[in-house]
Amino acid sequence: MEVVAIHQISPDQVILFTWGFVTVNATLVYTWLIMAFLVAGSYLVTGQLSTDRQVSRWQNVLEVIVSGIRSEIGDMVKEGADSYLVFIGTVFLFILASNLFTFIPGYVAPTSSLTTTAALAIMVFFAVPLYGITKQGILGYLKEYFQPNFIFFPFHVMGEFSRTLALAVRLFGNLMSHEKVVAILLAVTPLLFPVVMQVLGLLIGLIQAYIFAILAMVYIASATQSHEETGHETNRNHK
Amino acid sequence: MDSISIVAMASIITAGICMAIGSLGPGLGQGRAVQGALSSIAQQPDERNSLTRTLFVGLAMIESIAIYCFVISMILIFANPFWTYVIKKAGG
User: What is the pTM of this model?
Assistant: First the structure.
């Protein structure tokens, strides 16, 4: 079952129906499905949370996921991992879910469309100054742009935009390329070999979700923690 | 040669060359990065976690160059603006 034909580059081009000026394409529908899955799943689990010695198995699953993400964030920032957990964890879980469901036939990852990944990257683009200003104040945040001196201001601004573009295109390129490779292999060697590629695709999806979350965290951490502070930190570790 | 075959030929050849040259540099770069990370892990196995995380971030940075080239060649093959223009011209 082919949803996206081989000559189409993204699921945006699969238009399910148009209603007035609203066009519903495959990307939107699969994004809604992922959102419904995540929201319904966490709603069902968190409805019956308990602190007894006996917790339900789904609460265990959520605890493993959330504490794993939190400890990963805690390795990168010194304090206040919980304030980043909300944003980074949500982005990570959304990308992870949309990447990993590709083993279901007829499903197309919404992250293999440039519009979804651009939206995620723009969220990171705005989250960086938001976190930076709340942690350091407006002046402290703006001072980072003039480090080490004012000549570097345009380069910092250019870096902000180019890393947002790279964040979007990296996720899109990886997912889209994997989809195309599987489609081409399905035409060349239809037996068994595409299955191996699908398994590889699960690994790629996991790694890309991890990389997206880690990079977003690196960008936010670089805005919230001034360089002097981290420098002292490393010096102390060496001693 | 009419303009349709020129555009088609240029697109296909450029897509191939773009992928070939564009994957050369990142391939070498990723090899060096993994080599450095492996020897560092061999020297300091305790720092394995932070080394692996930095390695992944670095690999993603290097890989994005190859991904740019890949996206360009995909656009040249599947969503070429010049190709649609030429086809529209020829169609009338």
Answer: 0.83
